[in-house]
Design goal:
Length: 555
C-alpha cells in the first residue's frame, strides 16, 4: 500500500477525523486508478517471441499469457483484426502442447508434422488415419487488388513475426446511403482496392467437401523457417494465405446466413526450399523488393542513414529498375498499412483506412466486412477454361525461365494466388487446427467446427535460391519498428550465424486434428507435373518420390 496513507492508532477509533478518512479514501482511489492503468498498459504492451519469456514478452511455451484489451491496438495479437471479422475476439486459445508430450489431452494446436502415410488405408497400422473426402482441387480467383494498387496502398509490411502482404480495407460511413447499412452503430469495412470493370472483389478460394461458400483472402505472410513439417522434414520457409469464411452480407438469404455462424478461418500453406542449383524465384524477388522499399522508407523516416545492403534481385541492369524512392520522404509523412511514423514517434495505427471522422467507439467492437454482390458471383472459369489457363500459364512460364534476359521480376503478371500457380500441384494435406500466433485462434470444441482454423498445406515446395532465403532472414532480423524507430525489433529467435526463426514449435499430433492427405486417388490434377507423379506406385510416391520435380514431370 502507499507509504503515505494516514495512520490510524488504537485510540482514534470512530473519532478518526472526517478529513483524514477522506484523505485515506482519496489515496485509495488514486492507488486503484493508477493500478488499473498500469494493468491496462501492460495488457496492451504484451508481446510474443520465438525464443524465451522476458517480462511481458512471452516465449512459445508462455503464449497463453499474451493479453489483449483493445482489438485496434494490440501488439501481442497482431492478426486480431484479420481473424475478428464480424465477431468479438476476446480469448487467448494458445496452449503449450509440444510434439512428444501427451499431457494436453484433447486439443488441435498448430503447427504439426504432416505425414503422407495418413493416406494409407490401413487402420491397424495407422489408427489415426482419416480418408480424404475432398472431390476436387482448390480453385481460386483473384481479388481487385492489382500489383500497382498494393504498392500504392502500402500493403507490404515487415512485421515482428512475419513478412506480410495485406489486402487493404477501408471503413464505410454507416450513414452513407449508398450502402444502406442496417447497423449504423458499428463501423463496417469493405475492400479498398477498386478495379475498373470488376469493382471491389475479394480474392477467394473454394474448398471441397463440407464448405458450400467461398473463403476470402485477408493477407499473405511468409514464415522462416517453415512452421509445418512433412514426414519430419522442415523447409526453409512457408507461405501462408489466410482467409475468412464467417461473414454475413445483404446478398445472402436468411437460410444462407445460417452457414456463417461458426467463426471459421482457413490458411493455405506452400513450402519454400532453397537450392543452390535453382534460379531465383521471380515472384519472390518481386515481393522481396517491395519489403525492401518499405524497409528503406522506415529507415529514412526514422533518420537512420545506413541503408540495407544491396540485393541483386531488386535491380535489373537491362531496365535500370529500382523500387526505392528517388526522393527521401518528408519526416512525418511515411505510412505503411498499419502505422504512421511521425516526427515525434507517436503511435498512429492504420490497420484500416477511413475517409470520415467517426463518433463511434471502436475499442472493443467486432469488425464487420461488407461483401459486394460481385463477391457472390458465379465461378469465373469452367473446369475446361481452368485447364486451358493452366496449360497456357505453364507454357509461358517455361519459356520465360529459358530466357535469361527476362528473369527480372517487374515484367511479370501478378496474381494474389501466384504461389498456388507456381507450386504446380493440386494435392495437399488437410487438417483442423489453430492459427500459429497468439491468440492461436481456434479453441477446440468437441464435435464442432466452430472457431477452427482449417489448414491446407501443399505437398510440394517451391524451390528458391539461397540468396533469397538469406534476404528473407535479414529483413526479419534487421527490422526497424516504424512506431519507435527501434532497430532489430523482431520476435524472431536469432542464431549466432544470423539465421532466424519465426516458426512456432511443432505441437503434438492428436486425433482431433483430423489429418488427411488428398492426392491422385481423389481427383485428376490439371498439372502435367502431377500426372507424372501419379504414374508412380503409391508406396513409391509416398517414400522415394514425394515431390513432382523428382519425377519425369519435374519443373
Amino acid at each position: 500500500k502507499p507509504t503515505n496513507w494516514p495512520k490510524l492508532n488504537e485510540n482514534q477509533g470512530n473519532d478518526f477525523p472526517v478529513q483524514s478518512r477522506m484523505m485515506t479514501m482519496m489515496h485509495i482511489q488514486r492507488f486503484l486508478i493508477v493500478s488499473f492503468f498500469i494493468i491496462i498498459s501492460n495488457a496492451k504492451e504484451d508481446r510474443f517471441n520465438y525464443d524465451k519469456t522476458s517480462g511481458n514478452n512471452y516465449g512459445p511455451d508462455d503464449w497463453d499469457q499474451v493479453g489483449c484489451d483493445d482489438i485496434t491496438n494490440c501488439p501481442g495479437w497482431p492478426d486480431n483484426w484479420e481473424v475478428g471479422h464480424g465477431w468479438n475476439l476476446t480469448e487467448n486459445a494458445c496452449r503449450w502442447c509440444p510434439q512428444g508430450d501427451d499431457s494436453c489431452g484433447r486439443h488441435h494446436q498448430s503447427p504439426i508434422d504432416l505425414q503422407r502415410n495418413v493416406a494409407m488405408n490401413n487402420s491397424d497400422i495407422y489408427p489415426l488415419n482419416k480418408t480424404c473426402i475432398d472431390l476436387h482441387w482448390m480453385k481460386y480467383e483473384d481479388s481487385s487488388c492489382r500489383w500497382d494498387t498494393l504498392r500504392e496502398l502500402n500493403a507490404f509490411e515487415i512485421e515482428r513475426h512475419a513478412l506480410t502482404i495485406h489486402q487493404p480495407i477501408e471503413a464505410i460511413d454507416p450513414l452513407d446511403e449508398e450502402w444502406n447499412l442496417i447497423d449504423k452503430t458499428n463501423i463496417s469495412y469493405h475492400l479498398q482496392c477498386f478495379e475498373q470493370g470488376r469493382g471491389r472483389i475479394w480474392g477467394r478460394i473454394d474448398f471441397s467437401k463440407g464448405f458450400s461458400h467461398w473463403w476470402y483472402l485477408t493477407h499473405s505472410s511468409i514464415k522462416v523457417p517453415s512452421e509445418h513439417t512433412q514426414n519430419g522434414q522442415r523447409y526453409d520457409a512457408e507461405v501462408q494465405l489466410h482467409h475468412f469464411y464467417s461473414v454475413e452480407s445483404g446478398a445472402l438469404t436468411n437460410a444462407e446466413k445460417g452457414d456463417y455462424n461458426e467463426n471459421e478461418m482457413a490458411s493455405v500453406s506452400i513450402f519454400l526450399q532453397a537450392n543452390e542449383e535453382s534460379p531465383p524465384y521471380p515472384h519472390l524477388d518481386r515481393v522481396i523488393c517491395e519489403w525492401r522499399a518499405t524497409e528503406e522508407l522506415v529507415r529514412q523516416a526514422c533518420g537512420i542513414t545506413q541503408s540495407a545492403p544491396p540485393y541483386p534481385g531488386c535491380f535489373n541492369s537491362l531496365r535500370g529498375y529500382t523500387p526505392f524512392p528517388t526522393e527521401s520522404p518528408v519526416p512525418g509523412t511515411f505510412t505503411n498499412s498499419k502505422v504512421t511514423v511521425n516526427k515525434n514517434n507517436e503511435r498512429q495505427r492504420r490497420r484500416t483506412s477511413s475517409s470520415y471522422s467517426s463518433p463511434i467507439n471502436t475499442q472493443s467492437q467486432a469488425r464487420r466486412i461488407i461483401l459486394s454482390e460481385q463477391d457472390f458471383r458465379p465461378e469465373e472459369k469452367t473446369e475446361e477454361e481452368w485447364e486451358e489457363f493452366i496449360q497456357d500459364y505453364r507454357r509461358k512460364d517455361n519459356a520465360r525461365s529459358q530466357d535469361r534476359n527476362l528473369l527480372g521480376s517487374q515484367h511479370l503478371t501478378f496474381h494474389n494466388y501466384q504461389w498456388m500457380m507456381d507450386v504446380r500441384t493440386e494435392y495437399y494435406f488437410r487438417y483442423q487446427g489453430t492459427s500459429t500466433i497468439p491468440p492461436c485462434y481456434g479453441e477446440y470444441e468437441r464435435n464442432s467446427r466452430k472457431e477452427t482454423n482449417h489448414w491446407r498445406v501443399m505437398k510440394d515446395p517451391i524451390r528458391i535460391h539461397p540468396r533469397q532465403l538469406a534476404e528473407l532472414q535479414r529483413l526479419l532480423r534487421e527490422r526497424v519498428d516504424p512506431e519507435t524507430c527501434e532497430e532489430g525489433d523482431t520476435a524472431a529467435a536469432v542464431n549466432d550465424d544470423g539465421t532466424v526463426s519465426v516458426a512456432r514449435p511443432l505441437q503434438q499430433n492428436v486425433e482431433q486434428h483430423f489429418k488427411t492427405f488428398c492426392e491422385c486417388e481423389n481427383w485428376k490434377s490439371k498439372w502435367p507435373e502431377d500426372w507424372a507423379w501419379c504414374d508412380k506406385e503409391k508406396e513409391d510416391r509416398f517414400s522415394e518420390y514425394p515431390y513432382n520435380f523428382e519425377t519425369n514431370g519435374g519443373m
